[in-house]
Amino acid sequence: MLSAENLETIRAEGLRILDLTRRDPERAVPQYPEWVMSDLLTHVGSVFGRMTLICRQRPTERIPGPRPPEGSDLLSWYEAHLAEMLTTLEESDPDTTVWGFWPDPCIGLWERRMVVETGLHRWDSEQAFGEPGPLLDLEAVSGLDEFTDMWVPRMTELPALQARAVDLGRDWVLGAGVPEATVSGTGSDLYLRLMSRASAVELPEEWATAVDALEPPPR
Residue 217 falls within a domain, yes or no? Predict the structure, then answer.
């Protein structure tokens, strides 16, 4: 069984994205200049659909996510994929080995990824309406926990960086070796900045350049 807290967070944040899209599907999304809210909803719904397939098929290589059928109601399509994914995750063994972006990938790590995915895109959705709330502590911790395994290998070699979440009482060392610098902020601001979102955290120049050049993982 997977974490009830994680699943409820995914549910709540997924529904928040849906509600904001329902408010104005054509609202521009500042984080993705070519997207409106319906595009963001399509992306997240496709991620949910792929998560369901990963749990059921247990692939060892990357698989694509589904797309909404031509002429279908996007809001209903998304809501169905969210509900189906949550049910499938709840029934899955977190230790099951599957394809993933990390060393030793398993369904449990994908559950964590879904916490981060929905939290970050909820922030993107709220930003579109000028009301971005901070990431939840669970989302910030999950994102910072996965950053070294998922994102650092995709970057050019950088000096290790210590990230200190002042509100959580936790530190993370990003990269290999002894940290050459420390950045401090809330867990939410730390992770948002590492994902090139608006944040009060200022990264060292090398790190700022590297994270801002990151491309998303293959879908």
Answer: no
Coil vs helix vs strand at 171? strand
Range of the domain at 35: 4-128
- Residue at 218 is within a domain: no
CATH of the domain at 19: 1.20.120.450
Residues 142 and 107 placed together within one structural domain of the fold: no
Question: What distance separates the 2 farthest-apart alpha carbons in the chain?
Answer: 55
Identify the pLDDT of residue 68. Answer: 95
Claim: this prediction has a pTM higher than 0.70: yes
Same domain, 149 and 81: no
Residue identified by tokens 């031509």 is 70
Whether 106 contacts 100, CB under 8 Å: yes
143, 116 in Cβ contact below 8 A?
A: yes
With a cut of 70, say whether residue 203 has pLDDT above it.
yes
User: pLDDT for 136-177, tens place per residue?
Assistant: 999 999 999 999 999 999 888 899 999 999 999 999 999 989
17 and 123 in contact (C-beta within 8 Å)?
no
Are the beta carbons of 158 and 206 closer than 8 angstroms?
yes
